[in-house]
Amino acid sequence: MADLMKRTVVVTGGSRGIGRAICLAFAGPEANVYFNYSSASAASMETEELVARAGGFAKGFQVNVGSEKEVESFFSKIMEDTGRVDVLVNNAGITRDGLLARMKEKDWDDVLDINLKGTFICTKTVTRPMMKQRYGRIINISSVVGASGNPGQANYVASKAGIIGFTKAVAKELGSRGITVNAVAPGFVETDMTASLSEKVKELMISQIPLGRSGRPEDVAAAVLFLASEGACYITGQVIHVSGGMYM
Ligand code: NAP
Question: pTM of the entire structure?
């Protein structure tokens, strides 16, 4: 059961990968964690169980972040449970890679709808309760490629660069209400999203990382946890790269 003395933390795409690590980073006596995911699978239950084992509370809901209707009903349930949203982590994301000349309109639309429009819809929905509270922490998961560019990912790069611009605009809009808005830009992190890369491509990527290894989901989660903490109260509109120095 949710404990009303705790902070309410919402993580989109919390069933796997980086999102699950973020849910786990908040697991403990201080937060009620709510997360969503897109496809019914055992993965979401596993996130709930892992958080419970770490002494926390987490509840997952099947929600398409690209659908305003579904997102509004998701946040209504959370507000009914706890009456507040303290932290929103816009993490849900997909790739549909391909060279621009062969990229289908649907692959462009799907990536922009989930990665960028999903971030817009979720952020817009929490704005009202956060403004009432005069407190909020919004953390958007971008990517190093949103700053550096990457061939074969024009749709994904556009969505992740869009998230950086969105973060800065919203940080300026909401700063006076006690709400900070920042982005975290992971580099190459081994999750299902990068599992299909060949060993050769992975080796090449690692050879370009000054710290000499791929990132772990927990490395990204640690930056998110910091941005949600009191220690980060004077940081807004920033992008923290968690990439082992892959991009500087
Ligand atoms: P992942 O392992 O593929 O997990 C993606 C998560 O997003 C899953 O929980 C998935 O739910 C959820 N999701 C997908 N579409 C959704 C939708 N329409 N509505 C709600 N949830 C949805 O990916 P990841 O590697 O952890 O990536 C997490 C974030 O980090 C993404 O924004 C990604 O772009 C970013 N990132 C990743 C890397 C990397 O190297 N891995 C690098 C830079 C940035 P289901 O389980 O139901 O599919």
Answer: 0.98
